[in-house]
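Reminder: ligand-aware prediction takes two inputs, not one.
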Amino acid sequence: MRTQPAPIKFAAVLAAAVLLLALFACAPRPGVYQVGPGAGEQIIHIIATNFAFDPEQIAARQGQVLILRVTNQATTTHNLTVRDPQENILAAIDLPAGSSSETRISLKEAGVYSFYCAKPFHSGLGMKGRIEAAAF
Ligand SMILES: [Cu+2]
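Here is what comes back for the chain with copper (II) ion:
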């Protein structure tokens, strides 16, 4: 019985690795909230506490419109500020203690949209997150 030449074995191993990577890329990533595939407005529920947002990582698609509905479960006022990939402020809303507020953002371009609490020191304490808008 002949053994296969090394280059063919290498190609087979490489193909298997690429297939595994592709499967992994399509699978939900732990800790990342995956926005549904629909083209219409998507409602995302976010919980604000001292000092975190949950979820803090959101995966969406370019062109989607997100309604960020934030419930502040803390007993102090927080804030949600969202910036587009160019760092322009898309939304900035204060979140009174115990209240729910919402803002609507449009992911016009692909890239990373950052969000954070603009109250002094809060983002440094962990009140921040990101929305990744994948290209079409
Ligand atoms: Cu805050």
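The beta strands are 33-34, 41-49, 52-54, 57-61, 65-72, 78-83, 89-95, 100-106, 111-116, 128-134. Residues 30-134 form a domain with the Immunoglobulin-like fold (CATH 2.60.40.420). We will return to this case in the review session.
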